[in-house]
Amino acid sequence: MTLHVASATAPVNIATLKYWGKRDKDLNLPTNSSISVTLSQDDLRTLTSVACGPELQEDKLWLNGKEESLGSERTQNCLKDLRDLRAKMEASDSSMPTMSQWKLHIVSENNFPTAAGLASSAAGFAALVVAITKVFQLKEDYSEISKIARKGSGSACRSLFGGYVAWEMGQSIDGSDSKAVPVSTKEDWPNMKAAVLVVSDVKKDTPSTSGMQLTVKTSDLFQERIKNVVPKRFEEMKKSIVEKDFATFADLTMKDSNSFHATCLDSYPPIFYMNDTSRKIIRLVHNINAFYNETIVAYTYDAGPNAVLYYLEENEEKLFAFIYKYFNKVSGWDTKYNASELQNFLKKFDAVEEKLNFQTDEDIYKGVSRVILTRVGDGPQSTDQCLINKETGLPN
Ligand SMILES: Nc1ncnc2c1ncn2[C@@H]1O[C@H](COP(=O)(O)OP(=O)(O)OP(=O)(O)O)[C@@H](O)[C@H]1O
Ligand SMILES: C[C@@](O)(CCOP(=O)(O)OP(=O)(O)O)CC(=O)O
């Protein structure tokens, strides 16, 4: 077979100013702008390979080793937009192979749990559109391509960039100005780290799409959020990122997570994404910040109970004196630290223990299955790793 093949990796992003609510469901146009931090692909990434050729009979997708339907309208919209861009190029240069008319085989792997509130759909759709952009040799910039990823899953548009990313909601009804743009690069503020406390990696019970639809329809609080709260916060958060003002960034991040979950609770019937462990972690974070009399850590929760903690590298020992103390029985620590470094966190805790002015449930770790230690990372990357057999077009 004559197959054209390309592969790309894409990162997960975790919003610090949440996207919640659509003004157009088919185009995935949001009711508010949002902001996220892109996480390192060393720890969380999607790898997607695509093959395109005249002999392929139908579009196919294999996700994590299993064939999955490509039938969803959202995926179809992404494929259509990418083919339209390719067709335009072909129309202006008749020597180009007519890839826009050929079928695609897509093979993808997430190196972390899929559909568990760890933003797999964001990394997944970003990797898919970037891999196809590469095989089609499209010339559009990534903000333009982010509009296509957005149609797959709203938050996916932010995974087109590394560092700190804004999704500008836009105004036009066709979505032509609803796109991701970089706020700051990873290099501008490289010492941002993240610890994900995986509270549950089972599939969540209210999918984001239907959850946000219900909130838009039923929550009064939501109107206040999109009209008065988020627009101001969007500007303040961008400024805090550009100025590398962690305390302001962290306060806005925590407030916004709480505001988003409050609108979920205000939906009718209410939606609960956080559980008792999530709430205990929130309390712990506030206690840690109060103990040091400084905001050194922020929590944020997506549509699930998992906590993502953002902090600066220089405060790691101060933070992990507590986080390692309470969660040392959970797996994941040894991916980044050796035994003596871990011992050091416990010593730090012992050194501050007698000054402690709060209590934490010693069993809090029982609600957490693992920690993922990571940091701010880069946007999508090309890769030589290929998941597809170049002769057959089937998964390797
Ligand atoms: N690598 C991938 N390639 C293509 N599609 C993917 C990929 N990974 C995930 N998806 C799609 O995303 C869906 C999961 O999205 P869902 O929003 O339910 O979970 P999530 O993204 O992990 O959680 P959240 O968006 O709340 O953080 C999968 O069922 C699949 O359709
Ligand atoms: C809580 C969130 O994680 C919601 C993400 O929702 P999705 O992007 O998964 O929703 P769809 O556009 O319907 O696919 C907040 C965020 O990432 O901004």
UniProtKB/TrEMBL annotation:
InterPro entries: GHMP_kinase_C_sf, Mev_decarb, Mev_diP_decarb, MVD-like_N, Mvd1_C, Ribosomal_Su5_D2-typ_SF, Ribsml_uS5_D2-typ_fold_subgr. One of its GO terms (biological process) is ergosterol biosynthetic process. It holds the Pfam family MDD_C. This is Diphosphomevalonate decarboxylase. Keywords: ATP-binding, Lipid biosynthesis, Lipid metabolism, Lyase, Nucleotide-binding, Steroid biosynthesis, Steroid metabolism, Sterol biosynthesis, Sterol metabolism. Belongs to the diphosphomevalonate decarboxylase family. Pathway: Isoprenoid biosynthesis; isopentenyl diphosphate biosynthesis via mevalonate pathway; isopentenyl diphosphate from (R)-mevalonate: step 3/3. It comes from the Eukaryota. Residues 195-382 form the Mvd1 C-terminal domain. It catalyses: (R)-5-diphosphomevalonate + ATP = isopentenyl diphosphate + ADP + phosphate + CO2. It is an enzyme of class 4 (lyase). Its EC number is 4.1.1.33. Residues 10-180 form the Diphosphomevalonate decarboxylase-like N-terminal domain.
